[in-house]
Amino acid sequence: MTATGTGADPESLRRRALDALTVARDRTALLTSCVEDGELTAQHSPLMSPLVWDLAHIGNQEEQWLWRAVAGREALRPEIDSLYDAFQHPRASRPSLPLLAPGEARAYAADVRTRVLDVLESTPLEGRPLVDAGFAFGMIAQHEQQHDETMLITHQLRKGPAALTAPRRRSCGPVHCPPKSSSPGPVHHGDLGRAVGPGQRTAGARPGRPRLPHRHHPVTNGSYLAFMADGGYTDRRWWRPEGWAQIREHGIGAPLFWRRDGGQWLRRRFGVTEPVPEEEPVLHVSWYEADAYARWAGRRLPTEAEWEKAARHDPVSGRSRRYPWGDADPGPEHANLGQRHLRPAPAGSYPAGASPLGVRQLIGDVWEWTASDFLPYPGFTPFPYKEYSEVFFGPEHKVLRGGSFAVDPVACRGTFRNWDLPVRRQIFSGFRTARTAELD
Asked: Are 71 and 119 in contact (CB under 8 A)?
């Protein structure tokens, strides 16, 4: 991972690293300035940190990697390292820590950034793995953007009036802070294509149900409503035992943030209650819910390898692309990224971002659950620290691919692997389905 890619001249590398760091800090500033300080120190869910923890953690990681490790300078605030170590303190316990107050956290992060910009200007971007092609600077920009997505999840979980607004897709303006105050349609199963394996045959629709049309996009709210209307949450046949136990124990009968009002389904989105838009990809579903829907539809979740082949393989040249549309950096015509709209785009959007096989919205909109456990690739070696991924390897975590509307391009590409527990629903997760093709 680099902020800039390889093969660029040093000044171009510095400019791109500076741009990535600046965009990330602007996003952090927005997410932490559009609510009062009391909202920053509050814990809006035990699943998430207080926003002020994320803010100081961002500064602390930047200090540790760019000021200390890259520049070799003396620690600025060594006494706070343990407070902002994510592996020492679970999220639920962080409000009880002696955290920096909002003003102090902002000042600390700003001081680190000022020093880091001097480091960026003076550091040769070659000769060490940590700095080659701007690696460490890109890593820190990516880290900050990942926490910006985490903080956006916290904003979704918080109660009260909207603190963030954004235009719908027809306008590509930035998200901004407003003044502080107080029946299913056609069923499309979100096709990834038909995956062929030796001896495998097409997975058919369930008995008594006609084969339904499908499209090359994630499963929509409208299609998911059909699953719900058909008793999907009350029919044990579609659920794995652990998933069935989860929904029964917690009384789950719809995606997170949905509620029924008379004959209409509503959702809460960043402080606004609105009708569920049937044309958008379904959001805030667990892996178990995605898997149950796929079984109900006579299909399955794609494996991680199938997802990546659909997203990167060019059948004409035989090469793998960086993104479905090619190797060019994502633009607003390609994908819904960067928190521009604070919602997924309608299914079928972004034709310019389609893969050579016509599969759309593989990047952006929703993280997509896959069938695969989060395991290392053959020959995997952690760099520069094992805590980023290695400690999560195992069958407990499932792989998500593609990136959501909350992800910045610096933290998203066709090879990027995300992971989470299969019960998680607060993340910006959706899915698409696959079926196994019949061999001739």
From this structure: yes
**Do strands 264-269 and 258-261 pair parallel, antiparallel, or not at all (unpaired)?**
antiparallel
Q: Are strands 429-430 and 418-420 parallel, antiparallel or unpaired?
A: unpaired
Per-residue pLDDT tens over the stretch 403-419: 999 999 999 999 999 99
In the chain, the domains with their CATH numbers are 10-157 (1.20.120.450), 188-440 (3.90.1580.10)
Cis peptide before 384 (omega within 30 of 0): yes
401: enclosing H helix or E strand:
strand 394-401
Q: Using CA atoms, how far apart are residues 268 and 218, in angstroms rounded to an integer?
A: 21
257 neighbors 425 (Cβ within 8 angstroms): no
Reference 49, options 97, 92, 88, 85; nearest CA is: 92
60 vs 78: CA distance, rounded Å = 9
Is the full-model pTM beyond 0.70? yes
CA separation for the pair 204, 7 (Å, rounded) = 48
**pLDDT above 80 for 33:** yes
d(CA 45, CA 43): 6
Phi then psi dihedrals of residue 267, to 5 deg: -135, 155
DSSP 324: T
The token pair that represents 33 in the structure block? 């300035």
Of 228, 344, 337, the residue nearest 277 (C-alpha): 344
Spatial separation of the C-alpha atoms in residues 259 and 277, rounded to whole Å:
13
